[in-house]
Design a protein that fits this description.
Layout lengths: L6 H19 L4 H4 L10 H15 L18 H13 L4 H20 L3 H4 L2 E4 L2 E5 H23 L7 H11 L3 H8 L7 E7 L4 E7 L3 E4 L8 E6 H8 L13 E4 L1 H8 L7
Parallel strand pairs: 3-6
Antiparallel strand pairs: 1-2, 3-4, 4-5, 6-7
Helix pairs in contact: 1-5, 1-7, 3-4, 3-5, 3-7, 7-8, 8-10
């Protein structure tokens, strides 16, 4: 079923997120821009260039006609398309890329402000699948930018920007994937009951029942087979493939079946 996303809330979240990226970038010198991040082959500047490229595409700007060298981190066609935008601005200083991002972000926000809820409900292709809505695409854009902002922060050794509203909105994009994560990625067996409790800027518990398929539920019909507890920002990094559970053993609480708990924690990543 296609996802209906509230237009005004989505635009507000994107506006705040774009503003946070610009505010962060305004503090950086060129050495900081060239700091490596957790994403293979990408610096802080490359993360911003990726956001610039995606928003430029959505604004209707043509893809740069540029050849991308073979690189180990380019493992699929989407990665190669992303790299075209990044490669096109890689020689530029970070401040110039930031100025371009500010311009295209303003352009995109102007276009989004002019849209109606009906426009947001229009069926379209999204990274989550071909039969979704434009609104879902914009929620994905917030999620993607929020993660990349924190890739930049991690690379710079800066603390999280754990604004509760922004964190909660990013988590909303992960929750629909929990059935897939639990049942397919982690391979938690049929008959299991799973509890994931998040702490920090978002204090919330999510439940998954694994029957013929793994499904998000409101209540469990018994004690959880496996339960994980972790900070919400770690959950976002793990589900976004930014880190691995083994590096955060002390931050992940496990209860129930020890082996299944470890299996789930090690297989939370679902993004490309």
């Amino acid at each position: 079923m296609a996802t209906i996303v509230d237009k005004d809330r989505a635009v507000t979240m994107l506006r705040t997120e774009f503003g946070a990226v610009v505010e962060l970038g305004a503090t950086l010198d060129e050495e900081a821009w060239n700091s490596p991040t957790c994403l293979p082959g990408w610096t802080v500047k490359d993360n911003l260039a990726h956001m610039l490229g995606t928003e430029s595409s959505l604004a209707g700007h043509p893809m740069p006609d540029i050849e991308v060298p073979e690189r180990p981190h380019l493992k699929n066609d989407i990665a190669k398309l992303n790299e075209q935008w990044i490669e096109s601005v890689r020689p530029l200083p970070g401040a110039e890329i930031l100025a371009r991002f500010r311009t295209v972000a303003d352009e995109r926000l102007g276009a989004l402000d002019a849209m109606t809820q009906a426009d947001f409900d229009t069926p379209t292709w999204t990274p989550a699948g071909p039969d979704e809505t434009y609104g879902r695409f914009m929620r994905i854009r917030h999620y993607d930018c929020f993660l990349h902002e924190h890739d930049m922060r991690d690379g710079l050794g800066l603390p999280d920007r754990d604004d509760p509203a922004q964190v909660a909105y990013a988590v909303e994009e992960v929750i629909p994937a929990l059935g897939y994560i639990v049942g397919r990625k982690a391979g938690i067996p049929k008959g299991s009951r799973v509890e994931i409790h998040l702490t920090g800027a978002l204090d919330e518990t999510f439940l998954v029942a694994v029957d013929d398929r793994a499904t998000l539920v409101d209540t469990l019909d018994g004690d959880p087979t496996v339960a994980l507890t972790m900070p919400v920002m770690l959950f976002l990094r793990l589900t976004g493939g930014r880190t691995d559970a083994d590096s955060h053993r002390g931050e992940i609480g496990r209860a129930g079946d020890e082996g299944l708990g470890r299996q789930l924690a090690e297989n939370l990543a679902f993004t490309i």
